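Need the bound structure for shikimate-3-phosphate, inputs here:
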Amino acid sequence: MIDAPAPVQSSSPSTARLLEKLRGRHIVLVGLMGAGKTSVGKRLAQRLGLPFVDSDHAIEESARMTIPEIFAERGETEFRAGERKVIARLLGERQQVIATGGGAYMDAETRARVREQAVSLWLNAELPTLMRRVQRRQNRPLLQGADPEATMRELMERRYPVYAEANASIMSQEVPHELMVQAAVDSLLTYLDKAEPASDTLKDAAP
Ligand code: S3P
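Answer from helper R.:
Posting the output first, comments after.
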């Protein structure tokens, strides 16, 4: 007997509607280190049937160096220039879900490109959640100082007003990944429904 085909994930009504409303645009995830951009992004991409890419990995691949190596050998300014270039390239590719490094959206050029070519989602998170997650790995040069928590707090103050420019946002919580993915889909749809109402609705509303 032939096995029944695996259910197509994107057949859920909200997923199908989101894909339609995206009209080929990327989804770009922004937020601080430890917010869960990669884990939510991967699952969101899977649910939508889109490719997933992490800008940090793309930078490491093109530089053939790890992020800590790039920071140590070339410095943060060069890392940021590479990050801007790589994200511009990723935005020029076919539709995908792009998780960006925590500092990427702070760059005005990158923000402008994201606004034009993608719909952005901020993964907002509270300090204890971020600290719990980043403590698992030692691969973030910005958090190698004496007081990573103070650094994180300072980054929150500086960056949250800028992340808030993203089109949509969700609160990153310690809940099953599927709930985070559903929250992401709902939040993106809420934004798109409001910002880009269906043309029928516009016609109906016309005098
Ligand atoms: C950085 C975040 C990191 C990485 C680099 C710098 C930042 O990415 O790009 O260490 O400036 O916040 P994640 O947010 O994926 O950890």
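Comments: The mean pLDDT is 92. The first strand starts at residue 26 and ends at 30.
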